[in-house]
Write a structure and sequence with these properties.
Elements (H helix, E strand, L loop, with lengths): L3 E3 L7 H9 L11 E2 L8 E4 L3 E2 L3 E11 L2 E10 L15 E11 L2 E9 L4 E4 L1 E3 L2 E3 L2 H9 L2 E9 L11 E6 L6 H8 L5 H12 L1
Parallel strand pairs: 1-8
Antiparallel strand pairs: 2-3, 3-5, 4-13, 5-6, 6-9, 7-8, 7-12, 8-9, 10-11, 12-13
Length: 203
């Protein structure tokens, strides 16, 4: 799945997430995922890359509306105005059609790369026509150690084969690790399952 699309935010957690991103620098580089604060059922978790060759500030695992359902997206917020780019790459060499993939501990997931107004979305599945992360990919994120986001954004020189030209690394074990992924996944469960999870947690 290597398409270039344009989407809009559903607004489920938009105000809270944007407030976090607009605030002071997140202390996530050593602490891994940072869950939405002050709520019993977090709808997003944010992490800074431990290493990156792109203008990425933070990545966010976000629960979004998908028709009458909910699904999770991996959203990328940039450290500078303009498009997602490898460090030092000229703007005029951006491809018309970009590629992306997610690799977790050697397991590779081809993903769509979608450009919205203030962020980029990676997704490998659809739910009611809305781009989301598959259960298989979320399982890997929840149990994994290292997640690599790879991008092919810049046109190759004539005759050169296509190649990924940017990469960001996320430590999935730091801080709350897989528990943070599990917490956000509960937001996308059917309502009856969310009520059961809350009951078990409170008990």
């Amino acid at each position: 799945m290597q398409t270039l699309l344009s989407i809009g935010r559903s607004g489920l957690a938009a105000l809270a997430l944007l407030a976090v991103l607009a605030g002071a620098s997140l202390a996530t580089a050593a602490g891994g995922w940072r869950l939405e604060e002050g709520v019993n059922a977090p709808s997003y978790a944010v992490a800074e890359p431990t290493a990156s060759t792109l203008n990425i500030d933070v990545v966010a695992l976000v629960c979004e509306e998908s028709g009458t359902d909910r699904g999770l997206q991996l959203q990328i917020y940039l450290s500078s105005p303009g498009p997602l780019l490898p460090n030092g790459a000229p703007l005029n060499r951006l491809k018309d059609t970009a590629r992306a993939e997610i690799a977790i501990d050697g397991q590779v997931f081809a993903t769509d790369i979608l450009f919205a107004g203030d962020h980029v979305v990676l997704a490998d599945a659809r739910r009611q026509q809305v781009p989301v992360l598959s259960d298989r990919l979320l399982d890997a994120m929840q149990a994994g150690h290292t997640m690599l986001l790879r991008f092919d954004l810049v046109s190759e020189r004539p005759g050169a084969a296509e190649a990924f030209d940017g990469e960001a690394e996320i430590d999935l074990r730091a801080g709350p690790g897989g528990k943070a992924v599990a917490a956000v996944r509960r937001c996308a469960e059917p309502a009856v399952d969310r009520m059961a999870s809350a009951a078990v947690t409170s008990w």
